[in-house]
Structure formats: structure tokens, C-alpha cells
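Record minuted for completeness.

…
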Amino acid sequence: MKSTASTAASLPGVSDRLIRSVRGLFEPDPDRRIDFTMPAGEPALTLPDSVSWQVFKNPIALFIGGVTAVLLELAEPRVRTGVWEHTTFRTDPIPRMRRTGLAAMVTVYGARSKAEAMIAGVGRMHARVAGHTPTGEPYRANDPVLLDWVQATASFGFLEAYHAYVGPLSASEKNRFYAEGRSAARLYGATGSPASLAELEAQFEAMRPKLEPSGIVFEFLDIVCRAPILPTPLRPFQRALVRAAVEIAPVWLREMLALGDEWRLGPWEAKLVRLAGRAAERIVVPQGPAAQACRRMGLPANYLYARR
């Protein structure tokens, strides 16, 4: 805790570097040439005044929420096996995280035609992924039940991270967020994804008997803590962001996965994570997906930042 507390004295500069580093996971690489300003005037799958556009612009919330979502996903043995055996996360985590981040940006901020084309490509890749868990249970990546679970866990993680570390959201706003995600979820094949808080809770209760602990969860957490996402001097903050993700996971999940006190946020860490999350709300990135999408719709680049 000493190193984290001592760094607090220079928080403004540290916070800026942290936000820039994490933001890189959710912005297109220059060679991908994704222009969120085109086609001019074409709407996205959700509207600019949606809760989704507000939440997904914040890279701190997305990183934390993404880790929370994966914890829930890895507790499901079929999803866990598919992720661990058919992705490059273990050997090359950062490119994998960038691809996932880019997919989220296109889904939320991309013009509808571009989002639909990308999602169709993801669906074709999922159709090729199938196998058996170590206990012999068959799985298919395009199984609607598993797609519903992935959609539910991602929505939960991103929303709760924003609520906890950026700005509180009302129950009405949370319900809107889940409802807004249904159109994209259906395109991915998640035909039964939750459209409200009540439906999310029902899905969690229905899935809980199928979840189980696994050593892969700790392997995942170790990878996310050690991956060179932040510069070496800021690596303690990276571990704090991972602990922040564990902190917002449901209590029953933390108990099931044996995520003990060593994964709890300390007081200074919690303060720094919230300061970074709120700082990210004030930084307009003119060439970022959110700002570009606003310009595509004839809105100022700072539209989303001026709303709260």
C-alpha cells in the first residue's frame, strides 16, 4: 500500500498516463483505418442520447467491467473451455484485448451498416468453434444459451464499473442500458439476453447452479495483472484496476471462486480508481470512436462529455 499511497501525490499526471494507456485498448490501431465519422448521418444501433453511449466512452469503466465480465464467463465451464482453447489470450493477451475492445466500439458507436457487417463476421468465426469440456460436455460458441450469458456478463460488468467508479446510475438508467443492448445482442445470436435489471438477476439465478471454480480464473487474473498494458511505473495501478473488477463482482461469485481479501481494494486504491474514472469523463478524445460518432451524427465532439 505504501507505493500506491505515495503515488497519490502526483495523481493528475499519473491519472492522465493511466487513462491514455488503458484507452489504447478501446481505440482502433492506425492501420485498421476505421472511420467512425462515416457514413455521415447514418445512425448506430443505439442513439447518441443513450446510456450506452455515455458508459462506453469511459476507458477505465470498460477495462474494469471487462475483467468482471470475464470472471463470470470463466465460471461457466463451456464458455471457459471455448475461451481458453480457441483464443490467443494466454499467449498474446493485449492483441486479443484490443480486438475485443474494438468490437465493443464498433457495436456501440459504429454506423449500423458497419456494425452489422462486423457482427456477422464474428458470427461466422463463432460457428467454427466447438468442442468438449474436460468433463466431456459438448459446447458450441454459437449456442444461444452461452451467447446470452456472455452478453449478460458483459453488460453487467461495464454498467456496474461505471456506476461504482465513474458516476452513480439510477435503476431507470440501468434498465435503459440493458434494453438498449438487445438489438446488438440479437445480431450476435444472443436472443435471450436480459433487457432489464430484473431479467439480469433471473439469468444469474438460473445460471448459478452451472457455474464452478477453476484454477483458470487465477491464471486469467495473473495475466491481466502482468500484461504490459500500463508503463512499468504504473503497474501497481493496473493491479488496482483488476482488484476493482473483482470488487464489483457478485458476492456469491467471489465466494464460489475463492477470491479472498487479497483481491479486495484498499482505501487508497479505491480512491485512485474513482479519481481516474471520473477524470476520464472530462477528457475528450477528438479522434476517439465516441467523438467521431458524435460528429457523424452532426453533434459536437464533446456532446457526451457535456451531458453529465
